[in-house]
Structure formats: C-alpha cells, structure tokens
Design brief:
single chain; TIM Barrel; alpha/beta; about 45% helix; 12 helices
C-alpha cells in the first residue's frame, strides 16, 4: 500500500453551484483533468474539499461520485477526521470502504488535546478502521501539533498507520521523523511550496492543492525530484512558485477555486463561512497565470 501512495495525491476541491449545491458536472471535469495530468492518487473530502461544510449524505455522494468517475484508475484516499473521537468511530463503522485504499485523518481541531490524547485518538481509529490510515498534522488549522515523538510512536505501534501528511512547516520535526521512522512509513508533504526540499530530505511525495489546477506541471516536478533529477525539478518548482503562493493569499480553497475558475474547469463558489477571493487577488492570480 505504501508504494501505491507515493508521488502526488491531489486534494480535490468540491465544486459548487452558486446556490451551494454540489456541481457534479464540473467535478467530473476536474477529476478527468487531474488524472490526465498524471497525479498518482485522489484525495476527496479533505479541508480543500470543504468537508467541514458537507453533511453526511453529501459526503457519501461525493465519495460515491469520485469512485464511479475514477473507475479504479487511481488509488483513493478519503478524508476521515474530526475532534469527536466517538463520532468518528461511528462514521468509520457506517462507511463504505469499497475501492478506498486509505483514510487521511486530521488531528483533532479546536479542543487542543495533549500528546497522550492525540495518541489515544489515533489508537482508537487504528482499532476501528477497515483500511490503512495516514495521519494529518496541520497545526495552523487544528491549533495543536502532533509531535515527532507521537508520530513515531504511532508509526511503530500500529501497523495500519502507514504514513503522515506533514503540514507543520517545521523542518526540525520533519528530520526527526525522517531519521527515526520505521521502514515504509510514508512522509507526505502537506505544503506545495516546500515539497521539493521535503523530498530532498527523503519525503515520499505530497498531497497537493495546486495539482487541482496544474496537475501535469506539478506531478512532473515531484516525479523528477523523486527520481533525483533536481535540476529539472527546480525549474518547474520556480515556474509554479508564485502561482502557488497566490493560491493562499486569502484562504484555501478560495484561491485554488478561483484558479480553477480562471482555467474554466470549475466555478469559484464556496460555502459559508468561506468567501471568494477579492478582486485584487483575482487580478493578481490572473496576471501570474497568464489568463
């Protein structure tokens, strides 16, 4: 399983119509666009997919649609996280995991558990999940960090915890995990702009936002880096750098949805409390993208 989830996973946006309903026609276009761009796996229902604003039936509809459209072409990693451990376990028991290769489970947000609490949260998920688990550490969203020691303990203690998406931005933490992780434990970047140096340290790829819009260019960059061809990887990294940074001027996924709108792939609509980027940011993005 670890070998299947190296390279580029795309953190799929969930396209909406202006009235807030899910735009499945645009969703189909997006999935085909990313698969044609040679991403390595699909990741629906994460933070970029606005999972926090989708109800249970909508989440099921999104996952069913991704499975159907993908038609077993690429692995699927689905977002399953939350700050209510018991509720999350119930969701795992009720879920349909046919054609799902792993779950991506973000650390509990808002309640700010201790490291012991984080460990035991994932311990219970490990004991209930029918598929492998990728941890997701994103302190900027959750308000707490999964320490390197906690990550390494979980990696060693539970065979179905197969990796972590690391978005702490802390290279000292990254290196402690790289140095001491078990064999085949995946280290996946959660930040597009630092993916190149992350791979140079030993990383196994990225779950990417920018790959929604630029799957071919970003996947080529990552694959060059993973092959040790850093000269060509650097060229693509710097070609995409300003565009990638522009996606996060206001918030994610507002930036990437505007980029997809400018490319005529999906519309820019989000669900409240998120709002579309300002006209000034839109103009800056359009200039950088040359559209």
């Amino acid at each position: 399983m670890s070998a299947k989830l190296k390279g580029v996973g795309v953190a799929l946006v969930t396209p909406f119509h202006k009235d807030g309903s899910i735009d499945f026609k645009s969703f189909k276009s997006l999935i085909e666009h990313t698969i044609a761009g040679k991403v390595d796996y699909l990741v629906p229902l994460g933070s970029t997919g606005e999972a926090a604003t989708l109800n249970k039936d909508e989440k099921r509809a999104v996952l069913d649609f991704v499975k159907e459209e993908n038609n077993s072409r690429l692995p699927i990693v689905v977002g399953y996280g939350g700050n209510n451990t018991r509720d999350l376990l119930d969701c795992l028991m009720d879920g349909d995991f046919d054609d799902v290769d792993a779950i991506l489970s973000v650390s509990p947000a808002y309640n700010k558990p201790t490291q012991k609490g984080i460990y035991n949260h994932y311990k219970m998920i490990s004991e209930s999940s029918p598929v492998p688990i990728i941890l997701y550490n994103v302190p900027g969203r959750t308000g707490s960090n999964i320490s390197a020691d906690t990550t390494l303990s979980l990696a060693s203690d539970f065979k179905n915890i197969i990796g972590i998406k690391e978005a702490s931005g802390n290279f000292d933490q990254f290196m402690q995990i790289f140095k001491n992780r078990p064999k085949n434990f995946l280290m996946i970047s959660g930040d597009d702009t630092i993916t190149l140096p992350f791979i140079a340290l030993g990383g196994d790829g990225v779950i990417s936002v920018v790959a929604n819009a630029y799957p071919k260019e970003f996947s080529t960059m990552v694959h060059h880096a993973m092959d040790g061809n850093f000269a060509d990887a650097r060229k693509l990294h710097y070609k995409l750098l300003d565009i990638t940074n522009s996606l996060f001027i206001e918030n994610n996924p507002a930036g990437i949805k505007m980029a997809l709108n400018l490319l005529d792939i999906t519309q820019e609509h989000l669900r409240m409390p998120l709002m579309a980027v300002s006209k000034a940011t839109q103009n800056k993005m359009a200039a950088l993208m040359g559209v």
